Amino acid sequence: MSIFTEPVGLSHFLVVGAVLFVCGVICMATKRNVLGVLMGIELVLNGANLNFVAFGSSVLRPPGTEGIGMDGQMIALFVIVLAAAEAAVALAIALSYYHAHATVDVDRGDELRG
Amino acid sequence: MAELLISISTPDWLAHTIAALVQCGLLLAIALCSAAVGIWLERKVSARIQDRLGPTRVGGRFGWLQPPADGLKLICKEDIIPTAADHILFRIAPYICFCATFCVFLALPFANGWVAVELNAGAFFLLAVAGLEIFGVILGGYASGSKWSLYGAMREAAQVVSYEIPLGLCVVVVVILTGTMNLVEIGNQQAGWFFNWHIFHDPFTFVVFWVYVTCAVASSNRAPFDLPEAESELVAGFLTEYSGFRWVFFFMGEYASMFVVSGLGALLFLGGWNGPIPIASLLGLTPDDGDVFGWIGNLLGMCNFIAKAFAGMTFMIWLRWTLPRLRIDQVITTCLKYCVPIVSAMLAGVMLWSFFLPGGLIAALTRPASFPRSAWERTDSKPDSFPRSAWERTDSTLRVDGMRDNGRVQEEAWRRSLPAVRSHAERGNEGDFQEESR
Amino acid sequence: MQAERAQSDTVEFDVRTDEMLINMGPQHPSTHGVLRVVLRTDGEVVSEVTPHIGYLHRSAEKIAEKLTVRQYLPYTDRLDYLAAMNMNLGWALTVEKLLGQRVSEKTRHLRVIVAELNRIASHLVAAGCFGLDLGSFTPFMWTFREREKIVDLFEEICGARLTYSYLLPGGVTAGPPDGWFGRCEAFLDQFDPVIDELHALLTSNAIFIKRTADIGVLPPEMAIDYGCTGPVLRASGVDWDLRRDGEPICTEMYDGYTWQVIAPTGGRYPDDHPYPPVPPEAVVGDSWHRFYVRMLEVVQSMYLVRQGIEKYSAADGELDKPIKIKEKLPKGEAYLETEAPKGQMGFMIVGDGSAVPWRVRIRSSSFCNISALPEICRGVLIADMSAILASLDIVLGEIDR
Amino acid sequence: MDTINWHSCFFLLLAAIACGFAVAVVVVGDIVRMACCLVVSLAAVAGLFFLAGAEFLGAAQLMVYVGGTMVLLIFGVMLTARGPLVSMKIGGGQWVLALVIGVALFAVLLQAATSTSAWNGPKANDQAAVPAAAKQDDGAAAEQDAAGQLGLGLLGVREDRLHRQDKPVLLGGMSGYLLAFEIISVHLVVVLVGAAYLARARRRIRNPESRAPNPESP
Q1: What is the pTM of this model?
Q2: Rounded Cα distance, D20 and D14, in Å
């Protein structure tokens, strides 16, 4: 019953997704750099994405059972696209934040004026 | 191969590992050889352009062994890491660059079925992985701790990210024509005479090919788009602080990626392994005629493909030694003001063309009367003018012609989903679909 | 337009980032030697340019105060080492002006021939390096191939390939060997079509035009203010050439020769020629015109060489012998500017009655030309920097002296 | 000894890379090294997508995320990382807090992931010996043209659901993603314009006559 001989299942993917998600959350919590926070968000989204793909995959389930099929990949695709868009906006915000505050430390930006 | 090893009582895991390593080694050899031949070609072609002889002595008359000699010299050089550099990133950057290029070879088919990993999304995968090369360049440029290197890295980022858009659109054009992203199928659909090549499919694809050439040159950082290492402006750009072995890796990565973009161009537009004349099928060297003959035919096809890729490389070398370098704003302008709009317009054009004249230009010219069924008639009534094998194989996966295939899949899907989406269809789409599919 | 640019005190940017100070040189491929230019950049845009010179300073003027004028001649070779003949000529003419000597007809024509041949060689280097600095290596090889033939010719007459020390005050070291003029003409004949190739490779190349047209525009007033001379001045539309407009000792050398001064006065070049026309993007005084003026001057120099060969064989008399090594200089001073390939090269000699000059001063054309660099480089991109620098065609040996 | 399941081996390898570099992203202080680790982690996730049979998605992940997003990130890093800003430390208390929350969250997720037995995957004897091979022959039928199915799905046709005509509920609401596709397209355009607008610095025009130095400069 070694992991090297047993096929992987959905749970394995979910665990990896969980690790990514948690790393992302910790990253968001502990980084003061705007870009660090952004990277945490990317990790979280990827953890979620991995779950979607795993749920939608047919190779990871016992034969005969059915997952969410194409929907998993579809949603993951949307997440990827939206994450790219989000990164672009976040980067633009980071840039203009930098111009305004001359730093990328999120703790300095505690006033809402631009 | 793994089976062979198992049969001589090698443990299962060892057999598979050895087989995998051998295949990796084979691919690596191809990548390195393409880089080495590219370097030799660069030396000889540039020499001819400049009224010189180039290498003449190392390894015989034509300086065949010059690339290994170069490599040996560079490996013997002192490995310098600047004090201001970020040591770890500086060290790994060249390997990232080379590995990304090497991974592309995984999905690059050399002949019908001769590909390490046949992916359904092969064309997309190829673009995606080739795009990773910039990551190594950016890291190298940043980690060098030199302003010139940083400039090179920033230019690379701006340039390559911009050029991925038109490059991707060029590939999409071909994907629309073929209805698949599987590179082997894309190659097989161009089997036969040269007018089956996608470049001659219609006037739009002809234009798209040249846009592809521009973007391919730009995305592999070759002159006149070699801004990241512009030696007269940025000393050597991202390569400024590199020397010896690491520099070799960047260099090999560059030449291997030249081979890749040329090969991809050949696959997408120039028939891949299908020569201008279908020699293999005329001589009876298709897989149908037996394994051995099929193998020989594939070998011919591979030679054909490699010849095309090197022709592409020669073209890039020729460009490099003829044209001055563009400026960064002009590079971006070329991309965003010319390449993207042109290829977008051509995309629309190709869509319309393959909607109305699915058979391509030659079919449209030779059989204007049979419109719009020309594609069907051509394949059904005159199968002999095309290699049978290709058609039959693609037929089995419902892929003969892009439009026909797409139409059929959509039609079937639509038919089967009618009860569910009836209400949707009644809003006006149904009529269109039925008309076009009949 | 460029002037406007220079006058506006702020440079605007879409995405503003940190400013960066960058040392371009002294070890940089496109600073033509050991020039160091400090760039203040914002992204790719250069907001301030400061040239720092002196890395090749060899006390050329001071050395002249320790040697006799003939002994000093080899040092002039090292000023503009790409046009050593013209440096020799400038020194020789200045010494002759101080001594009040005149040379024979044959010597005069021989001087015209070698000086103009060297002008061709110098302009070829300028054109090739221009291509090189724009990232095109091939023109460099092609121009050097042609220059090599000129250098071969020079080697035949004086034995040296770079530092000739041939045109001495009072005469030349030795007459040309047998058949030398024939080989000169043979060179010119085969060189004629090569010029077309160079034009095809650069002048009319779309990328070349995009990279150089309207880049580094030097208005005529500014050119005059900064003391720019030579092709740089003429490309700004100022019709000024010391071979025609200089002191008598210069212009007399070219008596009887027909040729044209290449300058786009009023935006037009003087003559119909078979070479590519001025592209609509080009502005008088920009980098493209500086390149073009040199390319057209090459043709004029070819005319001059051909005429010189004719006149030399027709001339009577002998070649002059140079002055003695320890020729005494009269009390007094002489200053003379001659038209060297890169601009006006001026030598000033103050004699105190001995054989060694009391003071020598050298006015270098590249020095004045590069002083305009900060003005014309404001607000350009980094890539334009090397284009502008190449179009100024500087030689550090002459700037630093 | 059982036959080695290569699919599982590759999964382990990629999962280790993905998780390891994700942890590295958290631990490493230097922003550029963080970005580097993140890229490796994301690339490994793309590999996991391949293993799960989502080839198109894996390529999309490589292209959009690793290629595009990371370059954007690095761009930002380079524009903003200067001197002391490169690493900004936070206090130990915050670290502890974050770790506690993180571990708790992980425990919950782990429990959720492993609790359902159906999720534990196919057993070795369920399928032909190697699922990677199985994927190639019969599982492949469904995965054969994932990109095509995705595309049709975006156009409102769910090819993979066509055989479920017995359950109209499944088909009714979930027939396709045409509307989502359209919304996202518009969203992307808005984002493009918005990002371009945000990134522009406010213009300080002292001399109204002066113009931008190079209208074409990026």
Answers
A1: 0.78
A2: 10
- D207 contact C CB<8A: yes
Determine the residue of chain D that is closest to A84 in CA distance: D69
Chain B residue closest to C388 (CA)? B233
The dihedral of CA D159, D163, D165, D171: what is its sign? negative
Q: DSSP 3-state assignment of C160?
A: coil
Q: How far apart are CA B218 and CA B375, in angstroms?
A: 36
Specify which residues C42 forms β-bridges with: C19, C45
Cβ atoms D124, D148 nearer than 8 A:
no
Nearest-angstrom CA–CA distance, B15 and B19: 6
Q: Which chains have 3 or more CB–CB distances shorter than 8 Å to chain A?
A: D
Per-residue pLDDT tens digits for D17-72: 888 888 888 887 777 778 888 888 888 888 888 887 777 888 888 877 776 666 66
Of B263, B264, B262, B302, whose CA–CA distance to B280 is shortest? B302
SS3 category, D112: helix
B-chain residues near D21 (CB < 8 A): none
ipTM of the complex: 0.77
Q: CA–CA separation, C13 vs B147, rounded Å?
A: 20
Query: Which residues on chain B place their C-beta less than 8 Å from a C-beta of chain C?
Result: 46, 49-52, 147-148, 151, 154-155, 223-224, 226-227, 230-235, 321-330
Chain D touched by B411 (CB under 8 Å): no
Which tens digits make up the pLDDT trace of B56-73? 888 777 888 888 888 888
Q: Where are the domains of chain A?
A: 33-107
Is there a contact between D5 and A13 if contact means CB atoms under 8 Å apart?
no
**A90: Cβ contacts below 8 Å, ≥ 6 apart:** A34, A38, A41
Chain B's closest residue to C143, CA to CA, is: B50
Tell me whether residues D175 and B121 touch, CB distance under 8 A.
Answer: no
Helices in B145-288 by DSSP H: which ranges? 147-178, 183-188, 203-219, 244-269, 279-282
- Say which residue, D188 or B403, is predicted with more confidence: D188
Cα dihedral B321, B324, B327, B332 sign: negative
Q: Any idea what the Cα angle at residue D208 is, between residues D207 and D212, rounded to 5°? A: 85
pLDDT at B303: 84
Burial of D123 (0-12, 13-18, 19+ CB in 10 A): exposed
CA of B123 vs chain D CAs: smallest distance (Å): 9
* CB-CB neighbors (< 8 A) of B328 in chain D: 217-218
Structure-token pair, residue B266: 């050949």
Closest Cβ opposite residue D204 in set C5, C7, C10: C10
